[in-house]
Amino acid sequence: MQRGTRDSIPTGSEPLPATQPTPTFPEPMGSSDNPMPDYRRKPRNKPKLGLQNVRRHAVYLLKRKNRTQPFPKIVSPNETALYTAMGQGGPTADNFCLDFHGPLASAWNKRAAKVFASHFFDCGWYGSPKKDDIKRVFETHLRTLRAQYAKLNADNPSDDEQSQIKRNEEKEKARAQRRRSLQHRRANTCSAHLDLARFSSLLATLPPDAMSGDETNHQPCQKWYAITKLTWRSQAATEWLRIFDLVHLSTRFNCNGRAKRGAFLHTRIPSRRVEMSSQPVPRLPSNFYDAAWLLTLDDDAKTQLKMLPEVDLTHTTAILA
Questions:
Q1: What are the two backbone dihedrals, phi and then psi, of residue 267, each rounded to the nearest 5 degrees?
Q2: Which residues neighbour 190 within 8 Å (Cβ) at sequence distance 6 or greater?
Q3: Running DSSP on this structure, what letter comes out for residue 214?
Q4: Which pTM was predicted?
Q5: Which of 12, 114, 124, 223 has a 20 to 30 Å separation from 286 between CA atoms?
Q6: With contact defined as beta carbons under 8 Å apart, do 225 and 216 qualify?
Q7: pLDDT, tens digit, 9 for 90 and up, residues 108-147
């Protein structure tokens, strides 16, 4: 019996007709340090954020062949100082380099983390993870990158530079702890006088980074700290905060004028020194920001501050007496 002439269905094992092009498939990403084995932009599907991808992308942006190769460029202390003080320069995706001379949380490295997160997200090679998560993982990876830099430069005659980096880190940690203690002390001072109680909620919301830092000055038989200036903070906010320090100091004495028991506060003296690593703290009342400094910002930078409405920073006569 003769069968019909209906075309048979391809089983999948038969070769495709000569007129139909053979489909191509991207090769899977290998385990090398090359962050772009497949140069075609891939559709955003589920996020693929992991330390391995962050490492690969860091190699790519830093223009290194792999993790064992030297860093083509490291930002100089002069460049970081200029960026922190004036906002000039700074890392970009095309000129991506890091600061290993100062603390890892320097203004330069904080900006580099934002640049890294934006490029990692926008390139589309790793899905679409959240930028905040990318930034957080990269900031953790900074320690590894600095360790790689230190190891690659261990045989350099000027490797005592690494010891200086460690000393700077220790100083930065101590300075951060003093700043946290200062914020806590000022917040607690609100309970020392009825006229300060109205500021308790405001002080409770101010982060430690909104407080002035200080630098140690050791002299024979004398130890004091020079208060460093925050370029972005207004003079009105500075004077308002220092009143809390004076009130707190008055609580450290008895009615007879003698000091109470317990460790006495370290001496902080105003100075003209500028805190070079300071970054503006967002979400503060608008009168906490210096008016002249605000004029130097573009609209995007002002938007990122997310300034809150102005607040009353006036102390009563009873407090100032």
A1: -80, 125
A2: 196, 197, 199, 200, 203, 244
A3: E
A4: 0.52
A5: 114
A6: yes
A7: 999 999 999 999 988 888 887 888 899 999 999 999 998 8
